Amino acid sequence: MDYSKYEYYRNRELSWLAFDRRILGEARDKTNPLFERLKFLSITASNLDEFFMVRVGSLTDMLDAGYTKKDIAGMTVSEQLTAISEAAHELVEGQYNTLNGMLLPALASQSITILTGHEAMTDEELEFADRYFQNNIYPVLTPMAVDSSRPFPLILNKSLNIGAILENKDEGVIAAGKKEKSKKGKDDDAVFATVQVPSVLPRIIELPSHDGGRRFIFLEEIIERNLKKLFLNYEIRCSYPYRITRNADLSIDEEDADDLLLEIQKQIKKRQWGKAIRLEVEKSADKHFVKLLKKELGLEDESVYRISGPLDLTVMMKFYSMAGFEKFKSKPYTPQPSPQINPQLSIFENIKNGDILLHHPYEAFDPVVDFVRQAASDPDVLAIKQTLYRVSGNSPIIAALARAADNGKQVSVLVELKARFDEENNINWARMLEKSGCHVIYGLVGLKTHSKITLVVRREEDGIRRYVHLGTGNYNDATAKIYTDIGLLTCNPLIGEDATAVFNMLSGYSEPLAWNKLTLAPLWLRKSFYELIEIEKKHALEGRKAHIIAKVNSLSDKDIIAALYDAAAAGVKIDLIIRGICCLKTGIPGTNGNITVRSIVGEFLEHCRIFYFYNDGMEEIYCASADWMSRNLDRRVEIMFPVEKQELKDRLKEILDVQLKDNIKAALLLPDGSYVKPDGRGREQVMAQRFFCEEAVSKAVPYVNELAGRSFTPKMNPEL
Asked: Which of 54, 457, 619, 657 is most buried by its number of CB atoms within 10 A?
């Protein structure tokens, strides 16, 4: 078969939008607690914002530059933007159908009301809202009119605003205003004015209530109700909320930049003022109002999203975070201590007892933090080296690295400044680490360093020993509680030798002649995957069992997909667990139904990358920081590492097996590109994430209590 045909691949952007629809499905799922559904709705909105800022922004740049190359599915840039617009409008309509048709009524049934669209308020509520405006909102607002002396203001990216068309009460219209057609069809000089809804104030305001229920109103509703107080001598012909999304895809010329840090700082400032690519406006907005905004922002009709509800649904996450609604949320899960780690021993003694596999967030991230903390204060530790991609706001790892440098240890840290939307945060960390005496590297020119590796060099009685942590996720103690990831702690001397070589490559130009255990992108990882897939294909052609299981966030690399098609055609059974983008199609001619794809969307974000190859019974399992995307294989520094200890391999096999059996949160990819939940009738119900929570508790608690001299078997909360 010729697997190079466009028809065998799905467009990356449309596949991503399908992923956001799967998240929306969780917001619509009545088996989820009510406030969890609000959270999922918020996540779809946050995802869509980033999609427009990055993916649509990038495609818009390509269109402006006259880029003509077709994508993996044979679509031109213009065709992609048209298809994206259609799919995104459908998604937004689905978001608000979910909010208005399902979630708001469900909240109302629990005596929780969110007032939208200028709904009726009681006299007491009206008085409260007006007083709140006068005391808290009015002093913060800055109304801006547009006329010959005051040009249309620069509207901040993702800011919520209220626009109005004004007329002078005495003279009919404001002189020198913007020329606009009135509803009567005649020309008059009406002024456009706008005011930004202050982000420094809470967007959700609770109204007084005496009947046991709770009632809320959005900040913009109060402002719009009191808008006349900002323009005392004018009639407000019409006013509506609106919101702009801008192109935030940074363009950095690394080759010509004298100082990468300063260059990125300059580009970050431009992000707020990038080209407008989406306008959200209230559905009932006057057509002349919308026309004026389109003209000022340089937008066409397809970039306008008329919204039937409150703009910017990310606000639902703030609602989710409010106190007093715990009964409408899932029971919080506490990450458990690893049963492999004896808390009475140092982290280094634990690692010397054998490789440790951590499965986050089911098992706590604490051992990774302790690894760096104990290294920072251990007098026998000589050096700490680490890569950092995304770090939490108050990172204990950063604090430990700074303390290590203060203690006189050799500390080298690669802080990736080009981690999208974390650039400013990483610049601040980099400067703080430099002031502490750490050697800070800003990444490699033309590449992002996405690998997750920490090396600790320790002096011991029998000589120098190297301890290594390798992971699939970031060194971020906050996201480690909600992202599923795998981490390996080892003092295997071969991996230690490779880790030293990695950091020598990152800090200088030293490249080893050969690698012992680790495989790196962009030079060797792609070839390694080809070879592993080819071995399974060879075994299948020889009539032997051949099986590949891959769990990744995204699959979009055409050559990897073609290799999988080819292997499936040879008889290799291929099971793919892909959370997000999947450009591979199932049911392709010649593959004989040997490829299955499933996506799991649940309480935790599926983030680990695990690769299983049967290898004629000599099973090989790898974990990696890389997805099967061209950017990971060709334009990033990534690391894949083997898991060789049999009991740890068995754990990873169990993780993959349970996820393949999930029939509650999993969705199967059909040949037409749609995703459907598997038919669980007559089968044991399996929810992988719940299974791992229960397993972590059952393994951890007996171990912890055994150390304390007690015996206790926990019972899991069925609502977990």
From this structure: 457
- Name the token pair of 627: 């997805």
Mean pLDDT for 652-665 is 96
Query: For residue range 202-248, what is the model confidence (pLDDT) as tens digits?
Result: 999 999 987 888 999 999 999 999 999 998 888 899 999 999 999 98
Q: What is the pLDDT of residues 380-403, one digit of tens each?
A: 999 999 999 989 888 999 999 999
* Residues 565 and 590 sit within 8 Å (Cβ to Cβ): yes
The structure's pTM equals: 0.91
Here the contacts of 531-537 (C-beta below 8 Å, separation 24 or greater) are 532/611, 532/613, 532/620, 533/560, 533/563, 533/564, 533/567, 533/572, 534/563, 534/567, 535/613, 535/615, 536/567, 536/572, 536/613, 536/614, 536/615, 537/566, 537/567, 537/570, 537/572
H/E segment holding residue 287: helix 287-297
**How many Cα neighbours within 13 Å face the side chain of 255?**
1
In angstroms, rounded to a whole number, what is the distance separating the alpha carbons of residues 272 and 524? 38
Dist CA 661 CA 646 (whole Å)? 22
Q: Round to whole Å and give the CA distance between 344 and 332.
A: 28
| 450 tagged catalytic | yes
Dist. CA 496–CA 641, nearest whole Å: 12
Return the structure tokens found at 137: 């909102």
Give which of 143, 313, 358, 101 is closest to 239, Cα–Cα: 143
Q: At what angle do helices 12-28 and 34-50 cross, to 10 degrees?
A: 160
Closest CA to 478 of 433, 530, 425: 425
Q: In angstroms, rounded to a whole number, what is the distance separating the alpha carbons of residues 372 and 221?
A: 49
Torsion, Cα 55 58 60 62, to 10 degrees, reads -130
> How far apart are alpha carbons 44 and 665 in whole angstroms?
17
Q: How far apart are CA 675 and CA 669, in angstroms?
A: 5
Q: How far apart are CA 169 and CA 33, in angstroms?
A: 51
Query: Could you give the domains of the chain?
Result: 1-105 (1.20.58.310), 140-202+217-308 (no CATH), 347-517 (3.30.870.10), 521-686 (3.30.870.10)
Q: Is residue 45 within 8 Å of 313, Cβ to Cβ? A: yes
Q: How far apart are CA 403 and CA 208, in angstroms?
A: 50
Cβ atoms of 424 and 269 closer than 8 Å:
no
Q: What angle, rounded to 10 degrees, do the helices at 423-435 and 260-271 form? A: 150
CA distances from 715 to 654, 695, 701, 704, 719 (A): 22, 11, 10, 15, 12
Residues in the chain: 720
The span from the first CA to the last CA of the chain, in angstroms, equals 48
Q: Which of 450, 469, 539, 607 is catalytic?
A: 450
